[in-house]
Amino acid sequence: MNAKLTLTSNDGQKFEVEKEVALQSQMIKGMLEDIQSAASVPLANVNGQTLAKVVEYCKFHYEATKKGDTQKTKAAIKKWDKAFLNVEQSVLFDLILAANYLHVESLLQLTCQAAAKLICNKTTQEIRDMFNIENDLTAEDEAQLLSEIEWKFE
Amino acid sequence: MMRDPLEALGPLCASNVLAFLGPHDLARCGAVSRSWKARALHDGQLWAPHLARLWDGKVYIPNAIRELAQVSPHRAYSESLRDAARQLPTEAELCSFTWALNFKALLSWFSTALGSASIRRYFNPNHTVTAPADDPMWGEVEPQRHYWYFRPEVDGSTVLQVNTYPPLVCTRTADWGWELSNVVVRMIIDTAAGPNPGIPPGHPAAQEALTLAQIEARFNGLLWQNEFG
């Protein structure tokens, strides 16, 4: 039999999940070790939209690992993860923060890698433009940087 | 509107993201703004794995750069790349290694005669060149004193001159060692043999009295005769 657990987001949305699914979060796992009878977990740092995605991720990965570790499932998981990450940048950042807060290590690695891909192979100016960052480096700073990291401009 | 990930994610998660970037991407991030510079360049943990990979399998990294790595790994990374392009070793560097000498094809009969015996040479701070006691060419005591000095060429380059032998051109190898080469021989750093142990006490070269100026005067004069005499 599988015990259920209710996760509540900071905007009041409730998600009922199997305990085993929720245990992928080290933070929830630790919480349940302290209070074993808990049936409801309030998550003050995660909104409903993000928690829905995290639950979706944990459910899929729980089911996928139950099926066994064949090459076929590995490829299927990879494909699913890729589709899962096809989200707006703001959602991706919220997922990183939620994965960090809930301590879901595999989701944290997955989302951080996806965020790194946004920056990968971009010039400094392209990064500024993408994230709307103002260049507040002084001419002195820039000259020093140029001498320190000239090799990467070559 | 895309949000600045450093602000949106906070320092810990932002570093988590940057940890997925290679050194080139990380360096470009370091030039975005002040806060990006602090996050991407001044975090030793981000650079330590890149530096370890860069140094892996390399023959020689100057001590100054190893020390710099303790303080600023990203600068040590840059300095390493810059230093690896330096063709001429310093006198101290030349004297610090054991050098393995091999004959080129031109004198391959020499190699054949010597069999598999390895020939090693030491460049010493008093500008003498010596060999281990069991040297297959020189034996216990070398037949004549060998001297080394750096000599500027007319084209502005510097070569390593040993007696009146054809000058040795110094170049870097792919593993950040050096190759000293002329038409006859090729010398590379023999890492397995360890550093130059120094001239043993009592060895004639230990009492060498010639100054560098005297050595230069003697051999430059002979080189002149070779070319024009």
Describe this structure in words.
The complex is a heterodimer of chains A (154) and B (229). With 154 residues, chain A is mainly alpha-helical. Chain A has a domain of 103 residues: 2-Layer Sandwich (Potassium Channel Kv1.1, Chain A), CATH 3.30.710. Helices cover 60% and strands 8% of the residues of chain A. A three-stranded mixed sheet of chain A has the order 2-1-3. In chain A, a hairpin with a 5-residue loop joins strand 1 and strand 2. In chain A, helix 3 runs antiparallel to helix 4, helix 3 crosses helix 5 and helix 5 packs antiparallel against helix 6. Chain A is elongated. The model of chain A has no long low-confidence stretch (mean pLDDT 90). Chain B has 229 residues and is an alpha+beta fold. Chain B folds into two domains: 80 residues; 138 residues, no CATH class. Helices cover 40% and strands 17% of the residues of chain B. In chain B, strands 5-4-3-2-1-8-7-6 form an eight-stranded antiparallel sheet. In chain B, helix 1 packs parallel to helix 3.
Number of helices of chain B: 9
The CATH architecture category of one domain in chain A equals 2-Layer Sandwich
Major sheet: arrangement of strands of chain A:
2-1-3
Catalogue the unreliable spans of chain B.
none
Topology pattern of chain A, helix = H, strand = E: EEHHEHHHHHH
Specify which chain pair forms the largest interface: A-B, 37 and 35 residues
Helix percent band of chain B = 25-40%
| The level-1 CATH class of one domain in chain A | Alpha Beta
- Quaternary structure classification: heterodimer
The best one-word shape of chain B is elongated
What is the molecular shape of chain A? elongated
The chain-level mean pLDDT of chain A equals 90
Given the structure, what is the number of helices of chain A? 8
Q: Sketch the major β-sheet of chain B.
A: 8 strands, antiparallel
Number of strands of chain B: 8
> What share of residues are in beta strands of chain B?
15-25%
How many domains of chain B? The number is: 2
Structural class of chain B comes to: alpha+beta
Give the terminus-to-terminus CA distance of chain A.
62 Å
Low-confidence stretches of chain A at least 5 residues in length (pLDDT < 50)?
none
